[in-house]
Amino acid sequence: MNRIAALVAVACVVLTGCTTAEQGKPVAAGTTTTKAPTKAPTSKKAVSREFVPTETTKDPTKKIDGVVAFDYKPGLHIDPTKRVAYDKAPPFGGAHDQAWAACMGVVYPKAVRTESIVHSLEHGAVWISYEPGLGEDEVKALAKRVDNKPYLLMSPYPGQDTPISLQSWGRQLKVDSADDERIDQFISATLRNKYLTPEPGASCDVLGPPHFDQDDPPPFDPTPPGADAVPVTGG
Q1: DSSP state, residue 38
Q2: Which of 13, 68, 189, 227 has the smallest C-beta neighbourhood within 10 Å, fewest atoms?
Q3: Which residues of the chain have pLDDT under 70?
Q4: Cα atoms in the Cβ-side hemisphere of radius 13 Å centred on 127
């Protein structure tokens, strides 16, 4: 290297290295060559937030594969001695008992009177039902989501055609596993959703005897409703 070339090289280094070399190719110093990829939300909490209803997205269940929607007329109350001929199993709307089932994060170990639970849905609750033969680990995973969580309740439901089913007023999602990510999405989308629920935020507290005793709830009736049953439309 002659003296002039050496001086040029030294000047280049002094001026912050006008070029750097990477794998034999010159790259301008200070230039960003790669952009960090945007991370997709991966946590359960972050994913669930995507499904919280807003003024512009009033029904986030439309983004959840498999959700069934149906319009039911609210406010159709029946006497506690009556039954309703529901059109869905498990039902998710229609006429219902005048007394709601306690739904402040209650895990019912046995099946409960359906007409009472449907009233809870009218207040904005989400009901997780499961077939009685569901595995213990699956039941525990579901109960963890529900226990002591306001406006959630859970119970077995004999005769349902999938292992697990979720109900809110006018919406239903059936899944095969407690690991299904759509469970949390459905809960976020429908829990006390003021755009979908007739009485969002109405009481879910314990009524107590003689109306609905959380510790000794009226049982599920497995027999057909009979000819004197009230239609799901109330009559």
Answers
A1: P
A2: 227
A3: 1-48
A4: 35
